[in-house]
Amino acid sequence: NVFGTAVATRAVKFATAAFCVCLFVVIGAFLQGNEGIETLKHLSQGGTVQGAFITMFTAALTVTIMTVIGIPVSTSQAVVGSIIGMALAASGKANFGQLPKLFICWVGTPIGAMIISAFFYRVLGPIWDKISDRFDIETLDRYLRIALIIVGSYGAYALGANNIANVVGVFAPFHPFNTLSNQWLGAIGALSICVGVITFGRKVMLTVGNDLVPLVPFTAFIAVLSESITIHIYAMVGVPVSTSQAIVGGVLGIG
Q: What is the dihedral of CA 83, 105, 118, 9, to 10 degrees?
């Protein structure tokens, strides 16, 4: 979701994208993953570590099936759905106190990214046109490639800060995970995201980059910048949201 448009437009190699994601997702999880972890930690209170395992297994299985098919889906929604399903199955009750906040943010994610993307496209588009008249194509491609790597790395940071809660949040209340700080728990969990990127990330990158709206490197830059800002905002709020919905909103805002 953070490098798909860049890889699909062949502005950035997959290996470069994977390296940047792995580095910055760990940094983002370590520095700013705490708020999201706390949100899912409270949603998971009252359960057991065995229940947490089942919750994560079912969420991971759902997302894995979608990934193999090549469809980007929301890990955040899969995890929260699994938490609620597990709570209802175990006790017939679920902690719905956090859900209104989550639902509002989920709806606001693609809409917010779309608005930000349309704004940046309208503002930066004329500036880019003027720059294009002054430089040759090779120089423009080089600068755009650098810009895409920078904004993709920022997106990976925001991904780690926001979505790391999906990986470790349900385990946080239980021993031995509660012996670690949220920072280190997030950083360790981020390593598993890195494994996912390296093994199965390419197919979803191409889906995001090719199958929504035809993009060139400049519009790819706008889409990822808009997605990254949106996800980072929700990371600071402490609500894990969908990077898939954010990048779709960003791409559609351009379209």
A: -20
Backbone angles phi, psi at 116, to 5 degrees: -60, -40
| Rounded distance between C-alpha atoms, residue 94 and residue 107, angstroms | 22
Structure tokens at 31: 């520095």
Q: Is 46 a residue whose pLDDT tops 70?
A: no
Among all chains, which residue has been given the structure tokens 């979701």? 1
Average pLDDT over residues 160-165: 89
* Residue 84 backbone phi and psi in degrees, to 5: -65, -45
The DSSP code for 12 is S
Query: Which two three-digit tokens encode residue 158?
Result: 């925001």
Q: Which two tokens stand for residue 113?
A: 């990214």
Quickly tell me which residue has 């940071």 as its tokens. 157
Question: What count of other Cβ atoms lies within 10 Å of the Cβ of residue 129?
Answer: 10
Beta-carbon contacts of residue 224 (< 8 Å; ≥ 6 apart): 2, 3, 5, 6, 148, 151, 152, 155, 247, 250
Closest CA relative to residue 244, chosen from 198, 211, 195, 199: 211
- Band of the pLDDT at 27, cuts 50, 70, 90? very high
Please tell me the pTM assigned to this model.
0.85
